[in-house]
What we know:
Shape: globular
Largest sheet: 3 strands, antiparallel
Amino acid sequence: xxxxxxxxxxxxxxxxxxxxxxxxxxxxxxxxxxxxxxxxxxxxxxxxxxxxxxxxxxxxxxxxxxxxxxxxxxxxxxxxxxxxxxxxxxxxxxxxxxxxxxxxxxxxxxxxxxxxxxxxxxxxxxxxxxxxxxxxxxxxxxxxxxxxxxxxxxxxxxxxxxxxxxxxxxxxxxxxxxxxxxxxxxxxxxxxxxxxxxxxxxxxxxxxxxxxxxxxxxxxxxxxxxxxxxxxxxxxxxxxxxxxxxxxxxxxxxxxxxxxxxxxxxxxxxxxxxxxxxxxxxxxxxxxxxxxxxxxxxxxxxxxxxxxxxxxxxxxx
Length: 317
């Protein structure tokens, strides 16, 4: 398949994202996709051609002069296309807004190639905040009971449920990440945080280390978790492990993913009395607002609080 040729300014921006802003390769790919879509759509509109085959439109020749002509109205037109023609959700459109804002901010603020930033006034679509989906204690116990005799998989699940670690963070762990009872995690934007390993994690880790695990066959630092082929685990492999345990356990939780195990850990820690700032540090959230989605209280608990109100007295007439 022929690789898409990008204008130099987009290439420069993508390099800036990873080398200076510390964004992951996955985030970089998402930004690249959004910018490709926008500039192909914009070129199709400018040249008055159909937008039903944008992949065929070449944007390699787009120049800074072309970009200087882009207006806020052009951005609105693109967002309408994403909503109406592509059926993008508010969350998907919000990501595209973030990409455009970041790109135009870069070429105006960092490169000083444009005088006016058309994305300054571009609003982000409102996204209804979803409650995190998680396992209750009974479901989590049933899930763990479904683990076959695999010290590695057991240790991975203990890390998810006790530490609320992200799957990408787990895959990036090295043996050197552990110092005594402390684990150093490299999170989003290459930000490091250190978390304490409780007894369950320590015991699971010792069992895994003593289980005669597959030797690492790759280069560089030795990963903490190694695949059966002797390579570093991938997000996809860990997702398959979770899916298999879900089936073997009989839990059969719909669309159970490593991320939902992270939600489970965070919710249980909050219910057990973790304060919001501690939870923010453990989870590696840059904003406490993100952590606050775990402060929801179950509807049943709310009902119980109201039922127990001393003023909940029925007066007979």
